[in-house]
Amino acid sequence: MIDAARGGEPVQSAQTVRVAQLPFRRLWLVGAAVYGVFLWWIGWGRIGPVLASVDASTLLAMAGVMACALAVRVVKWRLVLGQGAGATELYFLAKAGGDWSPGRVGELAPLMLREYRTARVGAWIVTDRLLEMAATLGLGALGIVAFGLKSGMPAVGPMPDARLNNMLVYVAGALIVLVAAPAVILTRRGLFVFLANRLERRQGFRRLSRVASLLVDVSTEVRGFGAKVPMASAMTFLATALDIVVGMLLYRSFGYTLSFMLLAVVQCAHALASAFPFTPNATGVPYLVAAGLLFEVAGVPAGVLGASVGVSIAITNAVFWGAFLIGIRGLKRGGVEASRQDRLFDYLASGDVLYRYDSVSLERLDGLVINKGRLLDVGCGDGAIAAGLGARLVVALDISPRCASLAGKRGVPSIVADARMPLPFAAGSFDTVYCIDVLHHLPREAWFGVVAEFHRVLKRLGRLAIVEPDARYAFVRWTQAPRSPIRVAPCPDEPAIDPLHLEAVLERQSFDFKLTPIRIDGRQVCRSVFPMWQRLLKAPFVLALAAWHGGRPNKFALVARKLPWEWDEG
What we know:
Layout: E1 5-6, E2 9-10, E3 17-18, H1 27-42, H2 44-52, H3 56-81, H4 87-100, H5 119-149, H6 161-186, H7 189-200, H8 206-224, H9 229-253, H10 260-275, H11 285-297, H12 302-327, E4 337-338, H13 341-348, E5 355-357, H14 359-366, E6 374-378, H15 384-387, E7 393-398, H16 401-409, E8 414-416, E9 430-436, H17 447-457, E10 458-469, H18 474-480, H19 499-508, E11 511-518, E12 522-524, H20 532-549, E13 555-562
Parallel strand pairs: 6-7, 6-9, 7-8, 9-10
Antiparallel strand pairs: 1-2, 3-4, 5-12, 10-13, 11-13
């Protein structure tokens, strides 16, 4: 957490870490490949003859209407979130994630990006989902009522009254459970304030209290959308109506004229199926539900239904992913250009916690030096270690202003300073110096000067405790190495250390020392320095290596004692 500096300026790393760099621009290739496999699985032999008789001009008109519906939704997001908020890009990301996820929870995908992880964005994603469900279910209910008033519509066979009543009850229930109830709850800000206050006062409920506090912010934002909701609702109903027109044109291209109301019911069934936890759009089940309803009610042949599903999926994805490729270009590709470790750790500590250590690890660190007296913690991070050390007085420093601030909140007096510069303390100021996971952030040639400063600020016979990742263990070495494909270290230039190299530095500074293997288990809270796809690819290998390494030590501790030049321990 301590970086090097020359002449008062932090040193630039040889490489630049681009934080949260997610390859969204390539997602369209994934979508195209998956749906290409889907079409292959259906079998060209089944749908080829039917496709040969399709009216191409009608399909072209269908693609145009589909693009219009897409444009209306994009404009709606820009209207609510504002033009400078990345609304277009966030829309495409949300909808791409929604199609692939159970219950469309993937629409929250924009919140994976730290710079867009705000209560306003989260509130709008949820509000938009409620509006979309209200429009689809509302038009579906109107379609069912229309069937009840006139059961013999053109090209539509009669439906039994009991079946119509059951469908209407299901849709009405879905409107209440999926739309009305969440909308009412989300606007009850006082409820979330009450929960947050109650949970804050209870031991062990701090996480739930934070969730309730977040919901307070979300509820505030939802209520703040009030003036824009009528226009957003109208645009949602327009886009949903255009979706139904798309269906009409699709079947007209195959020679079947289906009514708007019938297809409103079919789209409603499709939506309910896609909202079910195990049948997102990517499974194809919602399309099959819609096709089954058309087969039963409108008598559309199975071959035509199979071909229409394939054509619908192909055109829908061609339009969506083509627009995605264009629209995603403006999305910020990183939250931080972390070419300096002070900036990187400011980013990593932007929450309330930088690292989480288990109690056993904290006890091991505390036990390195028994009588600590007045202690200096160099590279204190968020102060979690310093706060747990049993010293008479602890003073901490870190190059990251955010880390120093968090340590101060833990009750540890903290300053912002660079370890390669002269420490702002008089000679002999401390009985103990702790330096935990700091030196591997610095080039080896800087160690001598840093350790010399530790020697200067320590009292005679003062103790120095250094803990670093141990390069003698393959698991540690591979997961720390700068060019390792399974690197988990947040910085690109922080390899593990062979203790022999550090022992030579201590010997030159008149330290007497003892080397001890030690295991420290800590978890970096913010992992977004790596793209999600990288983390997923690395995970199986890292987990396998961790299992192989087992409970063996992962670091070494060098506990050194400052001696006078004449080696008199007196």
